[in-house]
């Protein structure tokens, strides 16, 4: 099997996800955080919907002094000012009465009995309808991830619910008799480091993780049963670790054949991360086969699973940004090299401890610099960066 070029593999994974994107569900705002807009967010009214005072003070008409004829608080329906020489006390956020010529700040005014004096500022101290957006204006496109800020904007526009694509449901299966699930490694057995970390990466990519199974015994029957059970539990995507080669205890390929799967991508020309795969199963389900080596598994996750999940959620294809190298990074011949880097003073630097089996470098990296096949990353070169998905407030 000839490995698929890395950029083509990512594109194929995204197309597969987009073709199987989840149907939109009308979702209450309180439940929409982390989902994806399935339609553009369009204003239902002007923003603001009525003239709104920006300050506490006095809405005045005509020349000073002004006689106080009332008060307007936020939430009140303001009656017009009918006569020159009159004013109403007004609160920040309150509706500005018709006929108002100025809003005088309270701290720049003097109240003597029922008369107000002061010098209004020349610029209006209120927001006019449509100042932020006009009715029917598109504020956000379909495919926008829903954040608390998006929820607040939707509420300000008058929405109680938005059409959103539900988060894909993921399951994780760890293969390998040699793995320990607790305590220090030793006596020929290594600690499973993927089972604890992959759910966090998947959640950062927009999936929910409902099921985790393993370590699964190195038999074909155990592989088939674990995969079938994961899909029957409702998973849209099953991620497996290990077993992607064709060795004596690598049963993933035969299990996929028994389950009627077809390959979207089978091996990718990338280092580290070889071999990885993405398969489609009946009913719009997917299985991502990640290598057993920890760093290679994360490379596979960002190469195939990230674009697949973006497509399933109706989001834009997983984009890269660019970075400038502060130190050289060697290429990997005919393979794309995904090199872990840290960011410092606006430059990207390679980190140490980046063998396929190591996680020390990953733990302090911002993402993977992409060194194209047949090239090297020279100091000062500008390269694409595949950023690791971070939660708010996290720093690499």
UniProtKB/TrEMBL annotation:
Its EC number is 2.10.1.1. Residues 122-138 have a biased composition (Basic and acidic residues). Its cofactor is Mg(2+). InterPro entries: MoaB/Mog-like_dom_sf, MoaB/Mog_dom, MoeA-like, MoeA_C_domain_IV, MoeA_C_domain_IV_sf, MoeA_linker/N, MoeA_linker/N_sf. It is an enzyme of class 2 (transferase). Transmembrane segments: none annotated. Residues 118-142 are annotated as: Disordered. One of its GO terms (biological process) is Mo-molybdopterin cofactor biosynthetic process. Pfam families: MoCF_biosynth, MoeA_C, MoeA_N. It catalyses: adenylyl-molybdopterin + molybdate = Mo-molybdopterin + AMP + H(+). Pathway: Cofactor biosynthesis; molybdopterin biosynthesis. One of its GO terms (molecular function) is molybdopterin molybdotransferase activity. Keywords: Magnesium, Metal-binding, Molybdenum, Molybdenum cofactor biosynthesis, Transferase. Gene3D superfamilies: MoaB/Mog-like domain, MoeA, C-terminal, domain IV, Molybdopterin biosynthesis moea protein, domain 2, Molybdopterin biosynthesis moea protein, domain 3. GO terms for cellular component: cytosol. Residues 171-311 form the MoaB/Mog domain. Belongs to the MoeA family. Catalyzes the insertion of molybdate into adenylated molybdopterin with the concomitant release of AMP. This is Molybdopterin molybdenumtransferase. It comes from Planosporangium mesophilum.
């Amino acid at each position: 099997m000839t490995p698929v070029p890395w950029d083509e593999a990512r594109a194929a994974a995204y197309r597969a996800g987009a073709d199987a994107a989840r149907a939109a569900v009308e979702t209450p705002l309180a439940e929409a955080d982390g989902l994806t807009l399935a339609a553009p967010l369009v204003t239902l009214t002007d923003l603001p919907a009525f003239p709104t005072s920006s300050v506490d003070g006095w809405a005045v008409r005509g020349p000073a002094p002004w006689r106080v004829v009332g008060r307007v608080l936020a939430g009140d329906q303001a009656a017009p000012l009918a006569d020159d020489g009159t004013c109403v006390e007004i609160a920040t956020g309150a509706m500005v009465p018709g006929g108002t010529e100025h809003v005088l700040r309270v701290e720049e005014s003097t109240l003597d009995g029922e008369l107000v004096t002061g010098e209004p500022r020349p610029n209006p101290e209120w927001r006019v309808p449509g100042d932020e957006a006009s009715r029917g204006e598109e504020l956000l496109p379909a495919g926008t991830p829903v954040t608390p800020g998006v929820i607040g904007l939707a509420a300000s526009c008058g929405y109680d619910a938005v059409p959103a694509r539900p988060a894909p449901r993921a399951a994780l299966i760890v293969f390998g008799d040699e793995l320990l699930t607790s305590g220090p490694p030793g006596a020929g057995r290594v600690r499973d480091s993927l089972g604890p970390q992959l759910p966090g990466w998947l959640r950062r990519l927009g999936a929910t993780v409902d099921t985790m199974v393993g370590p699964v015994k190195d038999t074909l029957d155990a592989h088939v049963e674990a995969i079938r059970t994961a899909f029957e539990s409702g998973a849209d995507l099953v991620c497996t670790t290990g077993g992607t080669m064709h060795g004596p205890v690598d049963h993933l390929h035969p299990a996929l054949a028994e389950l009627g799967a077809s390959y979207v991508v089978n091996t990718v020309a990338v280092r580290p991360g070889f071999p990885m795969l993405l398969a489609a199963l009946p009913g719009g389900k997917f299985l991502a086969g990640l290598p057993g080596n920890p760093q290679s598994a994360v490379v596979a996750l960002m190469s195939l699973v990230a674009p697949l999940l973006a497509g399933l959620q109706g989001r834009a294809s997983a984009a890269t940004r660019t970075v400038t190298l502060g130190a050289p990074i060697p290429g990997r011949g005919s393979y794309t090299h995904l090199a872990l880097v840290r960011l410092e003073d606006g430059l990207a630097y390679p980190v140490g401890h980046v063998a396929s089996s190591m996680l020390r470098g990953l733990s302090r990296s911002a993402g993977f610099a992409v060194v194209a096949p047949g090239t090297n990353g020279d100091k000062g070169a500008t390269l694409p960066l595949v950023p690791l998905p971070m939660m708010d407030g996290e720093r690499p």
